[in-house]
């Protein structure tokens, strides 16, 4: 008897082009680190990248490196190294994986890009605590290690409505970074250069939003798992031309899929929203698990976190302060719930998955009754998956599979 064909997630053709621009990005930085041609800043993932680029700095994102350690399933081996150095197994596993790998002289960049032997040595580290406090501790560790300055922005957290006072306070802190950055980069600050990077970031953000919004089509041409890969250029190259060109290409492909009613998951039957961090070491397992149940996890808080609609080249500092403060992760539960409800409506989902990531309370929104409150408002069911972004010792594949299958059965009964 012929075996039943299982639905799969379809490949995106533009992936090759994305890999090319990511390779160029890493090689340019590696070259700069080896030759000293350009100065390098390390920046948090939602830090002031536009300002750093305007000062002529190349920008490395340790969280992106942490995610690479997770996706290549190297992270779990190196987390204990950082634990032994006093960084608890309960804190951010991006931090512990990244520091542990550095202490052992290992990087996934070497496997992916021939000739790259290490992360690029920073000339300065720049953080924004808008996402969590862990990033500051993380960057301080490297500042000591490399004996370079670590400067940053302290953002209010648990913000309800973003007020003028929040924006002014953050904008002032951003402006205060200019002087030390001029000294480190050897470049005089130029407002027009900042306007240019902010405008490119805005263009990137608008296109990335259009890409993610295509998932509202039925069937959806995109999955959350595609999003976690294709967000790379928006994270590490915003403020440059490359992601703008790339997202035009990707968008055209997705629009073509919509026109042909070509869903990313064959025979899409259920549509889900994902809240929280991806489980980097299980991206393909999770993608397969849901596809085989003809379920598309198609939208997420996570991928949408690199949409910055406030960026305005006419008012760079204030608009950057607004964009980096009105982010989901910075906000109060009330604001977050309103956001998720809108997303669930817009993407026409049948339910929501919360990932309770053990080492990232900042991106785990299910711990204080949010699933229950949202269920009341939306009437849609939820499932919480316990796991982690990078520490695979905290992930139970069996339990995840059983829980997801039971959840889909519950959705079947409701159909
Ligand atoms: S938000 Fe979470 S995953 Fe990101 S750096 Fe902070 S603790 Fe780590």
UniProtKB/TrEMBL annotation:
Q: Does the keyword Iron-sulfur apply?
A: yes
Q: Which GO terms describe its molecular function?
A: iron-sulfur cluster binding; metal ion binding
- Which UniProt keywords are present, listed alphabetically? Iron, Iron-sulfur, Metal-binding
Record flagged with keyword Iron-sulfur: yes
Pfam families in the record: HGD-D (PF06050)
Q: Which InterPro entries match?
A: FldB/FldC_alpha/beta
Q: Which family does it belong to?
A: Belongs to the FldB/FldC dehydratase alpha/beta subunit family.
The name on file for this protein is 2-hydroxyglutaryl-CoA dehydratase, D-component
């Amino acid at each position: 008897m012929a075996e039943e064909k299982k639905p799969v997630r379809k490949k995106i053709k533009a992936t090759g082009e994305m890999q090319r621009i990511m390779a160029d990005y890493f090689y340019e930085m590696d070259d700069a680190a080896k030759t000293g041609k350009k100065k390098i800043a390390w920046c948090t993932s939602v830090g002031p990248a536009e300002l750093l680029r305007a000062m002529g700095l190349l920008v490395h994102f340790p969280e992106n490196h942490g995610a690479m350690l997770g996706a290549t399933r190297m992270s779990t081996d190196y987390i204990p190294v950082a634990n032994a150095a006093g960084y608890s197994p309960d804190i951010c596993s991006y931090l512990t994986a990244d520091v542990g790998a550095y202490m052992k002289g290992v990087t996934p960049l070497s496997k992916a890009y021939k000739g790259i032997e290490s992360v690029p040595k920073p000339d300065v580290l720049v953080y924004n605590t808008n996402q969590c406090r862990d990033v500051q501790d993380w960057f301080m560790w490297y500042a000591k290690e490399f004996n370079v300055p670590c400067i940053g922005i302290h953002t209010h957290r648990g913000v309800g409505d973003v007020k003028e006072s929040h924006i002014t306070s953050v904008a002032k802190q951003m402006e205060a970074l200019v002087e030390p950055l001029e000294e480190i980069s050897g470049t005089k600050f130029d407002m027009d250069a900042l306007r240019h990077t902010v405008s490119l970031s805005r263009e990137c953000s608008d296109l990335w939003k259009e890409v993610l919004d295509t998932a509202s089509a039925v069937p959806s041409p995109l999955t959350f798992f595609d999003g976690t890969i294709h967000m790379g250029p928006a994270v590490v190259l915003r403020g440059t031309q490359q992601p703008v060109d790339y997202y035009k290409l990707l968008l055209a492909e997705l629009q073509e899929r919509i026109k042909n009613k070509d869903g990313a998951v064959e025979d899409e039957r259920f549509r889900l929203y994902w809240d929280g961090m991806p489980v980097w070491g299980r991206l393909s397992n999770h993608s397969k698990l849901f596809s085989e149940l003809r379920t598309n996890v198609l939208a997420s808080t996570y991928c949408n976190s690199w949409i910055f609609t406030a960026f305005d080249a006419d008012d760079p500092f204030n608009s950057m302060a607004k964009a980096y403060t009105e982010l989901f992760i910075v906000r109060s539960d009330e604001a977050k719930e309103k956001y998720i409800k809108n997303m669930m409506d817009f993407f026409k989902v049948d339910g929501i998955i919360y990932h309770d990531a053990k080492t990232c309370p900042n991106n785990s929104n299910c711990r204080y009754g949010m699933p229950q409150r949202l269920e009341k408002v939306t009437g849609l069911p939820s499932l919480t998956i316990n796991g982690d972004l990078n520490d695979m010792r905290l992930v139970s594949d069996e339990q995840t599979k059983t829980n997801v299958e039971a959840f889909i059965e519950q959705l079947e009964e409701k159909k």
